[in-house]
Amino acid sequence: MLSGIRATGRLHFGNFLGAVRNFVEHQAEGNRCLYFVADLHTLTTLDDPEELRKNLLEIVTDYLAAGLDPEQSVIYAQSSVPETVELFLYLSMFQPLGDLQRVPTFKDLVKRNPDRVSLGLVSYPVLMAADILGPQATLVPCGEDQVPNVEMARSIARRFNSRFGDVFAEPRMLSEMVKVPGLDGGKMGKSDASNAVDINLPIAEIGNLYKKRGVTDPARRTRTDPGDPYHGCKSVYPVHELITPGEKGNREIAHACQSASIGCGECKTLLIESLASVIEPFQERRRELAKKRDYVEEVLVEGGKTARAMIKETTEQVRDLMGIRQY
Ligand code: ADP
Ligand code: TRP
Questions:
Q1: Atom nearest to 38 CA in ligand 2
Q2: Are residues 314 and 176 in the same domain?
Q3: Is any ligand 1 atom within 6 A of the Cβ of residue 14?
Q4: How many domains are contained in the chain?
């Protein structure tokens, strides 16, 4: 199992629930897991070297604070494995250019930032294929937006295998369809800072954000109006569903909203309690880890060695099959 996150900034609650919490669960299930920070991919959109270096360590610290354990999972930086970049070049020979230009995330970036369409941006999914195929990952947990990229890694693997025999395992996607709404009810994302909730903010501040800006059912004008938690409430009930223990089974809060036996203010107070029980232990561990930067760096050094050994083996095989002999 393998997944990665780009080092574009601190993690928000959407990344935490939608990605990192699943990473921790898969680790607990006893899978062989590789989790990395895609610092090379970050270069497609970030050109501040100091910020990139800082973000990398921040995200690894978030991984560790969330419960990823370097004794159980391989935790590394993409750039610790130069063979990934070599493999990327070999794989690029198996990827038609036209398909790359049709990837939705690419088209979206071209539209938003036409001046920054680099070769590196077009070939983004091929580097991602090298990330996945290098260590022979069979399962890739990822969000909806990454589906076309993983699909592309699968088709590269198929084309390579049909030419050279069964070299690559064909990776399957593990689509985690959790979509964490931002404060205004749209998808929480880094690109809209006012919508995202930084998981490192003090819980009182997170609480204030939800109190002031969380959007509940607009049709519920007074305390005695019944609410619609499922279709009306934008950013409060959907988060209860994700984190409040038991809610998915017993629907206690949903029923209380539908019968107007609790108001939106009380519902937010309950949400803040649930948020605190998820976020406070994380923040506590993070405070401890922040004092141990050497340890965090050591995790990257060791994880990098392990990942490199795995990826080197595949790359050597591919290099040899394609006729490259290194003298
Ligand atoms: P962002 O959308 O903030 O730029 P990324 O694209 O870097 O975040 O995503 C990193 C990981 O976090 C991906 O696996 C993505 O699916 C997940 N993720 C991001 N935002 C959300 C969200 N609002 N809900 C669920 N998962 C999310
Ligand atoms: N493109 C992914 C994202 O933006 C990050 C990523 C890079 C990744 N390489 C990967 C995810 C390999 C899964 C597998 O979220």
A1: 7
A2: yes
A3: yes
A4: 2
